[in-house]
Amino acid sequence: MFKTALASPLVISKNNLSDLGAHVLVWILYFFYENGMLMIIAPAEVSLMSTLILFLLNAFVFYVNTYIILPNTLGKNRRWQLGWQTLLLAVAYIGLNYGITRSLAFYKVHSIYSTDPLKVFVLLRLFRFIYFISLSYAYYLAVNTIKTERRLRKLDEIRIEETKKKAHLEKEILNTELNYLRYQIHPHFLFNTLSFIYTQVREHSQEAGKSVMLLSDIMRYALDNHDEEGKVKIENEIRHILNLIEIHQLRFNNELFVDVNICDNIEYKYRRIAPLLLITFVENAFKYGDLQDPEHPLKIHICMNDGHFKFFIQNKKKHTQSLIDSRGIGLSNIKKRLSLTYNSDQYQLDIEDVSILYTVTLNLNL
C-alpha cells in the first residue's frame, strides 16, 4: 500500500494518504520512544539535528529492504540475491553512518555519536542495522500474510458464489427438464403423427405439408437438441429461427417484410450457445410487431467473429396495451437465463424501446 503511494505520487487516493499518515505517526512515536527518556533526563546531551538525520537513515534501510529487496528476492524465491543485496545494504548503511557522523563532527554539530573507536562504531551500527532489518522482515511478512488471507477469503467468496450459481443453474435445468417431461405426451407418437399428416396433406397442398414439417422440426428442436452442458450449436439455433420465420410467412401468405442478414462464418458450426435464447425475441417480434410495413421491416442481423457473437433484432411496434406486460415476462426470463448461464462480463443485453421501434442487441463472448 505504502509502495503504491511512493510509486504513483500523482495519483494519491484516500487509502494511500491514510497509510502514509499511519507510517509517519508510527515513526514519530518510535522516535520519541527511543529518545524521550534521554530528552527528559539529560536534555543537554540531545541533539535533535544529528539524531533525526541518523534516524531517517534507519527508516531508509527499513523501506529499501521492505519494498525493494524483499519483494524481488524473498517474494520470488531468490535467496542468493537476498544475501548479497542485504550485505550491500549493510555496507551502504555503515558507510553512510560513518560519513554523516564525521560530517557532523567536522561542522561541529553536537551529537552523541562518535566514530572512535572505529571497531566499536562499526559493531554498534551493525547491531542497529540488524535491528531495523528484523523490523522490516516482520512488517513485510505480516503485510503479505494479511494480503494472502484477504485474497484467499475473496477466492472463497467467489468459489461459494460460483457454487451457489451452479447449484441454481442445475436446479433450473432440472425444473426445465421436469416441465418438458410434464408436457411431453409420447413425443415419438406426436412426431410420427405429424409425419403421417404431412404425407396426407402434401398431395393436396404443398404449403400445408411444408408447414407441418416446419412445425415438426421446431417442436423437435425445442424438446431435444442440447448437449451435456445444455447448449446447442449456433447454426442449429439459427436454423430454428429461420424455420420460425418461414412458418410465419406461410401463415401470412408471404406478406410479411423480413430482412435477415447472417454473416458467413465457420464458427457457427462449433461455437455453442444456450438453446432457445434468441427465439423469444423473434417470437415477440411476430406477436407484437407490425411486419406489414415495407418501410419498417423486421430486421434480424446475426454475426460471429473470433468468439464474439452479436444478435440484433428490430421491429415496428403495434400499439397494444399488452405489449409491455407480455414482453416484460419474456425479457425477465431471458435475463435470468443469461445470468445463470454466463458470467456478467460475457454478455451485454441492450434494449431500446422508442415511439414506434423496438430494438434488442445481444453481445456474447463465447
Helix content: 55-70%
- Structural class label: alpha+beta
Number of helices: 10
The major beta sheet can be summarized as: 5 strands, mixed
Averaged pLDDT: 79
What is the first-to-last residue Cα distance?
A: 36 Å
Low-confidence stretches: 1-12, 321-326
The tally of structural domains comes to 2
Radius of gyration in whole Å, from Cα? 37 Å
Residues in β-strands, percent: 5-15%
What are the salient characteristics of this protein?
Heat Shock Protein 90, disordered N terminus, single chain, 366 residues, two-stranded antiparallel sheet, alpha+beta, 2 domains
Topology:
Layout: H1 2-7, H2 14-41, H3 48-72, H4 79-106, H5 118-183, H6 187-201, H7 206-223, E1 232-233, H8 234-251, E2 258-262, E3 272-273, H9 279-288, E4 298-305, E5 308-316, H10 322-341, E6 347-353, E7 357-365
Parallel strand pairs: 2-4
Antiparallel strand pairs: 1-3, 4-5, 5-7, 6-7
Give a short summary of the structure.
The chain has 366 residues and is of the alpha+beta class. It has 10 helices and 7 strands.
Detailed description of the structure:
The protein is an alpha+beta fold and 366 residues long. It contains 10 helices and 7 strands. The strands form 2 sheets. Strands 2-4-5-7-6 form a 5-stranded mixed beta sheet, with helices on one face. It folds into 2 domains: 2-162, no CATH class; 256-365, 2-Layer Sandwich (Heat Shock Protein 90). Helices cover 64% and strands 11% of the residues. The longest helix has 66 residues, at 118-183. It has helices at 2-7, 14-41, 48-72, 79-106, 118-183, 187-201, 206-223, 234-251, 279-288, 322-341, and strands at residues 232-233, 258-262, 272-273, 298-305, 308-316, 347-353, 357-365.
